[in-house]
Amino acid sequence: MTKKASHPLKENIRNLKGCLHGGLIKESSEKYGIPEKDILDFSANLNPFGTPFDHPEYGLDYTKLAADALKESVNYPDNRYLELRNAAAKFLNQKNITAENIIPGNGSTEIIRLFCQCVLNEGDKVIIPYPTFGEYEIQCRLQNADIVYIPTESVYDLTEEELSAAKIIFICNPNNPTAVLRKRSDLLKLAEKCARAKTVLFMDEAFIELSNPEESLCDMAAENDYVFVMRSLTKCFALPGIRLGFGVASKNIADALNQARLSWNLSPLQEKTGAAFLSMPGGVNSDYLQNSRKMILREAIYLKDELSKIWGFEPGVVTTNYLLIDISKRTLNSSELAERFARHGILIRDCISFKGLDTDFIRIAVRTRDENRRFVQTVSKVFDEWAKEFAENELQNTLAKHKKGSRQNERETCEYYPCHFDGQDCTFCYCPFYPCIDERTGGTYVHSTKRNGKIWSCTDCYIPHMTEVVEKMLDGLMEDGDTEGLLKKEWLEIIVPILEERDSNKILMCCRKIRTEKIKSADKN
């Protein structure tokens, strides 16, 4: 007789960890003691143009919708949800899509779960290209499916044999978090391959209305049992709390999913709000969504241009309302960076939970110009604060080693700056005077905005790496007194004479020679 577990949960559920998401405003408010109204959320990717209710020109009135919904709330909702399904079909602007192809969902995550429940048996294989949205994995694990991960760039290299071994392949377009937008022409070829392999191509198009709807496969989903398209209304209409999404499938697939979904999964308020949004003239190309896309493109380019000026910040492609930023060149990792931003009342998405990104990436939403400026300026503050703390810790460690009679004079590699030269002294790995803000050292601002958002870079300053300077600094810092006072004294007595070229060793001249040689070497390469 098989011994029962200590609780009734299935084995694959017992150790399941939920998917991490952004938008944790209440939690962050409690943690950091910052009022919710003062928190700026760059971690959730919503339409920065605002909701249709924010624009009187579109004639939508939330109060009236809520009042109409209240009248219907005394009864169970009509589980057919014909008002929403008809509006969704019209919204997509495709002749072959009708209400019979639409599956309403309480947000896109319910659609993912419903589809996985209806398609997957225990042990079935699914293909998930990474990095991508984490809910695919969670919903597949709930069905105890076997997940095959592949790098996202390998999707089109899959053979029919490899595809046929899986029940579903998930594609997010544009992809979350990379923002890469796949071309419809390429996806059509993949869809044909999937149909031959009897593998479902699950297209998550949650952000496509804010990117380029022309790349959608919704028309193909209406006629192909092996293509399924999911859309989200909460992203493009900036109302995540309403919880709205829908799926697009062939009639026989949609009929089955509508039978299998939870009864009454939408309230009258959800249905009426969704139908109102989807019924704006022009559908996916309504004036509201066209203006949204224009604003997003403009602001995403602005953010990418400004952040690209900051050393160690490498923003990815501009296609939709978020940017993936590579911070691997910085010593500060994504988790610590997210923590420091949160202390300033700005939430960013730490990408540590995305497979393949580790602690080297953050994702930020595209917001309004004023909000985007505030973000750029906060980058300066965050790195300044971190640098000062880091410099103080490094200095104390250096002095402790010096008291014990040890020094680290040389390194072959440097994780902080590409500042090495022959004979460099690395005792002060990180300059204790940072940021000195004196361009006579060779240091400079690598980023500056009209609102004075600045990052001080020491990349071309070699003074604290000259042996003569290091020895003088160590002698001075070992004297009695507080560290801050001793550093001020050393700046005046050691560094200032060098900058004014009054030192006997002509150290500044040596530094200039090093910079010149490095520039010549770089030009040759």
UniProtKB/TrEMBL annotation:
Domain called Aminotransferase class I/classII large: residue spans: 38-378
Pathway: Cofactor biosynthesis; adenosylcobalamin biosynthesis
CDD domains, sorted: AAT_like
Catalyses which reaction(s): O-phospho-L-threonine + H(+) = (R)-1-aminopropan-2-yl phosphate + CO2
BP terms from Gene Ontology: cobalamin biosynthetic process
Keyword Lipid biosynthesis on entry: no
Cofactors named for this entry: pyridoxal 5'-phosphate
Residue intervals of the Cysteine-rich small domain: 410-479
Gene3D superfamilies: Aspartate Aminotransferase, domain 1, Type I PLP-dependent aspartate aminotransferase-like (Major domain)
Keyword hit for Transferase: yes
Enzyme Commission code(s) on record: 4.1.1.81
MF terms in GO: pyridoxal phosphate binding; threonine-phosphate decarboxylase activity; transaminase activity
InterPro entries: Aminotransferase_I/II_large, CobD, NHTrfase_class1_PyrdxlP-BS, PyrdxlP-dep_Trfase, PyrdxlP-dep_Trfase_major, PyrdxlP-dep_Trfase_small, Zf-like
Keywords in alphabetical order: Aminotransferase, Cobalamin biosynthesis, Lyase, Pyridoxal phosphate, Transferase
Function: Decarboxylates L-threonine-O-3-phosphate to yield (R)-1-amino-2-propanol O-2-phosphate, the precursor for the linkage between the nucleotide loop and the corrin ring in cobalamin.
Listed PANTHER family: HISTIDINOL-PHOSPHATE AMINOTRANSFERASE-RELATED, THREONINE-PHOSPHATE DECARBOXYLASE
Stated name of the protein: threonine-phosphate decarboxylase
Organism this protein belongs to: Methanolapillus millepedarum
